[in-house]
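FAQ: What does the model actually see?

It sees only this:
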Amino acid sequence: MPKPGEESPELSGRNCILLKNGNMILLVQVTAALLGMLGVVFGAFGAHRLKNRLDATAMKNFETGVKYQFYHALLLLMLGFNLGFNSPMETYMAYCFIAGTILFSFSIYALALGARIGKDRNYLGIVTPIGGLLLVAGWGLLLYSFVDHIV
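And it is asked to produce this:
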């Protein structure tokens, strides 16, 4: 098993979107910290500034975005400290969680806030399920990695 910063043999010589192991670990850890920090900011913003400004449905949707952002920030943090990103599957899993969290949560924020300011953001409605599908794919890859080690 390569150490952080070393290239795994299966990635050697490839030109692709996969980062070297140490860089991928750092990317996942930094992204997790950033998503966690922004989750606190958005949660506080929602609780203190939006509570009386959004209707109940928009507020509930906004809170759902914050929850999913936190869940996946914590998951990414755990992955960043426990995976070596020695296989493309681990890297794709991380990309699914990162992109899925951003697309899912941030599109929900935009939809909720758009309703408040009277802007039609319905075109973002397709982004939310794409983000959700990426999250499901990430969880599926995580499940597969567990089953693959058992079999």
